[in-house]
Specification:
- This protein has about 260 residues and is mainly α.
- It contains 13 helices and two strands.
- Strand 1 and strand 2 (about 75-80) form a beta hairpin.
């Protein structure tokens, strides 16, 4: 049961990391410095940097008598406010990336399930879409339910109920450790098709922090209950509750 609970914790951390990382704001922040390279690796070949650098003077002239500059790049419609143009090329580039990210993030990918989209989609940027985020969130909630179910089973299996806090806290701490250096490890993929992975795991350290602190709190509570008098009192109450629950089930079966 302990191994299954650890696996469930690890899976939940992975799903939550991915779900929290896949937001328009976070994607924009992560890809703004190397957007062209990432889009090329994804098979999109959106040369936005080159397009804007070569045509910036044209955009400036256009904005003298207009309020917006609208153009299309690889099927994506980009609407640049002329107020942004006044802030310089970097601001224009950031605005263009924001438009593209919003477009592929909120796009309705017509497929029956996540895996059909993942395996058959002609647009790899589906991985950064709201549909992917919703799928990962549902998997996180499922793993959370499994974790709580396994903890409930452990509650009735362990003789000393304080050990439940010790085991749960320890497993949470262990499950958080792989997420300390995930971003560092993924940074080695700068020149491969896996370059986009750091974007998907950008919230890994945040998940490590939350899970580690939660584990420390639960573990500390278990230690306090085990070595102080309050632990004896609570343990007796929990043991009595478990015993009454077990006896009531036996009586029900006897009546049947």
């Amino acid at each position: 049961t302990g191994i299954l609970l650890l696996v469930s914790f690890l899976a939940g951390n992975v799903f939550l990391t991915l779900a929290l990382s896949i937001t328009p704001e976070n994607i924009q922040e992560q890809v703004v410095s190397n957007f062209d390279e990432i889009s090329e690796l994804a098979g999109e070949n959106i040369n936005l940097t080159k397009e804007l650098e070569e045509n910036f003077y044209i955009i400036e002239e256009y904005c003298v008598n207009n309020s917006d500059y609208v153009f299309s790049e690889q099927g994506y419609t980009i609407d640049i406010s002329c107020d942004v143009v006044e802030q310089g090329p970097d601001a224009v580039m950031e605005e263009g990336i924001n438009d593209i990210v919003d477009e592929f993030y909120y796009e309705d990918y017509s497929c029956d399930s996540f895996w059909k989209c993942f395996l058959n989609s002609e647009n790899p940027l589906f991985l950064f879409s709201e549909q992917t985020k919703d799928y990962l969130k549902s998997k996180f909630y499922f793993s959370l339910f499994i974790s709580l179910f396994l903890i409930a089973i452990m509650f009735f299996l362990v003789e000393q109920k304080t050990n439940l806090f010790l085991a749960t806290g320890s497993l949470l701490i262990i499950s958080s450790l792989p997420f300390i250096k995930v971003n560092t490890l993924l940074s080695f993929f700068n020149y491969s098709f896996l370059q986009f992975l750091p974007v998907l795991f950008s919230k890994a350290y945040f998940i490590f922090t939350i899970t580690f602190i939660t584990g420390i709190i639960i573990l500390s509570l278990g230690i306090a209950l085990k070595f102080f008098n309050i632990g004896i009192f609570i343990t007796e109450k929990l043991d009595n509750f478990a015993s009454r629950y077990k006896n009531s089930k036996e009586e029900i079966f006897k009546k049947k």
